[in-house]
Amino acid sequence: MLKFYKYQGTGNDFVMIDNRQSKFPKDNQELVELLCDRKFGVGGDGLILLEDADEYDFRMVYYNADGAESTMCGNGGRCIVAFAKHLGIIDNECEFIAIDGEHDAHIDSNGIVSLKMIDVNEIEVDKKFTFLNTGSPHHVQVVRELERFAVYAKGKAIRESDLYSPKGTNVNFVEQEGPNHFRIRTYERGVEDETLSCGTGATAVAISMYHQGKADDTKVRIEVEGGELEVSFEVENGCYKNVYLSGPAELVFEGNFVL
User: Fold this and answer.
1) For the chain, which residues score pLDDT lower than 50?
2) Least buried of 40, 120, 161, 188, by fewest C-beta within 10 Å?
């Protein structure tokens, strides 16, 4: 029996496992893929292990739904903070380590988790898109009529294009809703489909829109298919620092999976 917890952050959902006893078979990619399967497993956009880490409150290990260990996941990071609080590991503040380095986070009285993301000092600007890494790689493209946009087909084509070969990228399509307010839809690498939310994608969009002059505030509202996120940051000599991704992270259910 494998004890698991299911968390979601603005519709981005994850299978969460307390692996402080190091019992989870981390090299079993098929098991991770099965647990994330929505018909034969628990179901999720990814799987996250919480582990012990020297000098930190915990370590975050993230796997995509295809079973492969992956780069940073922003909403997953917010969810593991809520998970750590549920387990009694932390109170309302924490510092943890993930594949892209150190992160600190806090939870407010309304359950909103604010997660510090990595600094961003390189942004590739093209006539049709921008590209940047916010812990994971992101292609950001402004479009019209986002509601009717062919996110899956066009996102998949960009993700698999020679431009991002061989590892691919996440793809975000953006439409401005108002001052410092944007709506996005994201095709996620590893999930290989559109997801209801992407935290590193929301972060990439907020920074990209500010960088291009489409936003004039360092606090940006991002609407995703599964809810709303806020991204705040500071700008110093072209470098984006103290970047925080904020939004809800909730326990959906818990149970045991028969191995």
Assistant:
1) none
2) 40
